[in-house]
């Protein structure tokens, strides 16, 4: 059996190694048009920022090391230019010599990945304008920085690559601005959670120009003007396009393979395409979202590796199936960690799911043990069934392990109420006896049992201000004086029992505090005394920002306002 693989990196290289482990006699040929067959794609921004200093550390395998270990013929700087399914051949061009030749196959795996989205805008070809996708792109950017010592950069796009680049360029001392059309960074997060990310970026000097449309680029004064619709241009010494990726599927289209979302390759759960003996894996393929069951594009290294393994298993006579992607991801943002899994509230509602959320702000470990830091968790679940749908966590320590627990719970089909039953490891330096994941489960159980009724950020503007309801802030007098929402009356929770006479039992009470805990306790006091009460999901506090003349709103939901 002869297997030809188009593209290396996560999917292709994984498939090649797996085929060899399952079949010692198979002939395996990999064609990779770049100069690198397996590299740490996610580490590229950190090389630019001098966190990773040795170029060779980015290369996980070389053609020589791969052949030595697996006897796989790795052909770098070779581009497959056509697929001929009727002949079971591919046309290959040697990019160094220009030679073209035909290569036969019994089985073909396509792992072409994705390409940076290149807008058709004036000035896209300028030599001070870059994209970041490959090792070559990385070296090009780094060499430019080393040679020209730019003082400023504009990044077009606020996804994973954009944020990681922004951090690393700031660490090099550059003035960095992120500009994009959406009004929030990191679309996998809901707007309320994304505002934490906005605050962290601004705190470290990254300028955010959100909600602006880029219309082109012009060279000026030795740098580049980024032209914005109805706004003054942004000027910088260099510009990096990080506005996302699109599936690299020209080969598949020309060969007549069935295509899906944004031209991606349609595959079944065995990673088989619409043409016999051709498989496809990685960023180029359309997948099923594990939570919603809908077709989706999820460009992450973990799914690509799993898909490569599944394709290899099936080529070698196995029966492996891909159950879908759920988008589990984590990112470092200066000192902060942000992570997500499953579907967020915004996208869940778009798919027609009737959802609710709980938001909590627990400590990363036991409060009495030094060094604990607050994290904010948002857990999304289906109202009728309490099926766990997704989670987002932002904090400083312990974020990654909690998101992995929640990702596992989603994969296991657990209900959000069952999170309370998880038996999780505890020691004071690492967690609390009631782990944050357990706490989320307790909160959902309270909702399920009618112990807790909530109101959410989107309800704030709809709350009557005509005296027909009571708006109650249960923080301390000092906290309330520092900043509060208009119309709310302040009774600190520890004084509430003695001051119940100030409230009218005939009116519903909407309660708020900093994190949601004191307001929940207040709700239990009120409910126990015959009041109809609703707890704000999350909480809020005001704090002084970088300058004394402005204030940002932060909350366990960041109030979703992210305003100055």
From TrEMBL:
Its cofactor is FAD. SUPFAM superfamilies: FAD/NAD(P)-binding domain, FAD/NAD-linked reductases, dimerisation (C-terminal) domain, Rhodanese/Cell cycle control phosphatase. InterPro entries: FAD-bd_OxRdtase, FAD/NAD-bd_sf, FAD/NAD-binding_dom, FAD/NAD-linked_Rdtase_dimer_sf, Pyr_nucl-diS_OxRdtase_dimer, Rhodanese-like_dom, Rhodanese-like_dom_sf. GO terms for molecular function: oxidoreductase activity. The keyword Oxidoreductase applies. Keywords: FAD, Flavoprotein, Oxidoreductase, Redox-active center. Residues 465-547 form the Rhodanese domain. It comes from the Bacteria. Belongs to the class-III pyridine nucleotide-disulfide oxidoreductase family. This is CoA-disulfide reductase. It comes from Mogibacterium kristiansenii.
């Amino acid at each position: 059996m002869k297997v030809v693989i188009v593209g290396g990196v996560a999917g292709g290289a994984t498939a090649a190694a797996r085929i060899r482990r399952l079949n010692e006699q198979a002939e395996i040929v990999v064609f990779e048009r770049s100069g690198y067959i397996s590299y740490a794609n996610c580490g590229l921004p950190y090389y630019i920022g001098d966190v990773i200093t040795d170029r060779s550390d980015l290369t996980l395998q070389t053609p020589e090391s791969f052949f030595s270990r697996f006897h796989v013929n790795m052909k770098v700087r070779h581009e497959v230019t056509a697929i001929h399914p009727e002949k079971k051949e591919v046309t290959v061009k040697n990019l160094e010599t220009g030679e073209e030749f035909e290569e036969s196959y019994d089985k073909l795996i396509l792992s072409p990945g994705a390409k940076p989205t290149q807008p058709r805008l004036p000035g896209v070809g300028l030599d001070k304008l870059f994209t970041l996708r490959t090792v070559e792109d990385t070296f090009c950017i780094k060499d430019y920085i080393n040679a020209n010592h730019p003082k400023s950069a504009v990044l077009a796009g606020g996804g994973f690559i954009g944020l990681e680049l922004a951090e690393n360029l700031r660490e090099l001392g550059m003035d960095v601005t992120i500009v994009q059309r959406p009004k929030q960074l990191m679309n996998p997060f809901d707007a309320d959670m994304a505002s934490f990310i906005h605050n962290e970026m601004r705190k470290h000097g990254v300028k955010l120009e959100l909600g602006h449309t880029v219309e082109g680029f012009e060279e000026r004064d030795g740098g580049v003007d980024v032209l914005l619709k109805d706004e003054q241009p942004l000027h910088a010494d260099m510009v990096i396009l990080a506005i996302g990726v699109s599936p690299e599927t020209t080969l598949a289209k020309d060969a007549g393979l069935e295509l899906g979302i944004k031209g991606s390759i349609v595959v079944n759960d065995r990673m088989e395409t619409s043409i016999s003996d051709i498989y496809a894996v990685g960023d180029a393929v359309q997948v099923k979202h594990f939570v919603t069951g809908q077709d989706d594009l999820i460009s992450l290294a973990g799914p690509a590796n799993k898909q490569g393994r599944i394709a290899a298993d099936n080529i070698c006579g196995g029966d492996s199936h891909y159950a879908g992607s759920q988008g589990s991801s984590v990112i470092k943002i200066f000192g902060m960690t942000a992570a997500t899994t499953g579907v967020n509230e915004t996208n869940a509602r778009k798919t027609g799911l009737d959802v609710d959320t709980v938001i909590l702000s627990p400590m990363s470990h036991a409060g009495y043990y030094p060094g604990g830091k607050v994290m904010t968790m948002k857990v999304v679940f289906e109202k009728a069934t309490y099926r766990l749908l997704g989670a987002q966590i932002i904090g400083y320590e312990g974020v990654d392990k909690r998101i992995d627990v929640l990702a596992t719970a989603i994969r296991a089909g657990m209900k959000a109420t069952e999170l309370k039953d998880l038996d999780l490891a505890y020691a004071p330096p690492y967690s609390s006896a009631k782990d944050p994941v357990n706490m989320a489960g307790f909160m959902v159980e309270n909702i399920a049992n009618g112990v807790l009724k909530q109101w959410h950020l989107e309800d704030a503007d709809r709350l009557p201000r005509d005296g027909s309801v009571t708006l109650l802030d249960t923080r301390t007098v000092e906290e309330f004086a520092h900043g509060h929402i208009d119309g709310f009356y302040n009774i600190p929770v520890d004084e509430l029992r003695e001051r119940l006479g100030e409230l009218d039992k005939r009116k519903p009470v909407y309660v708020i505090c900093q994190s949601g805990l004191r307001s929940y306790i207040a709700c239990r006091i009120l409910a126990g005394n015959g009041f109809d009460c609703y707890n704000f999901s999350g909480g809020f506090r005001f704090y002084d920002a970088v300058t004394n003349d402005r204030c940002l709103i932060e909350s366990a939901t960041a109030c979703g306002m992210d305003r100055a």
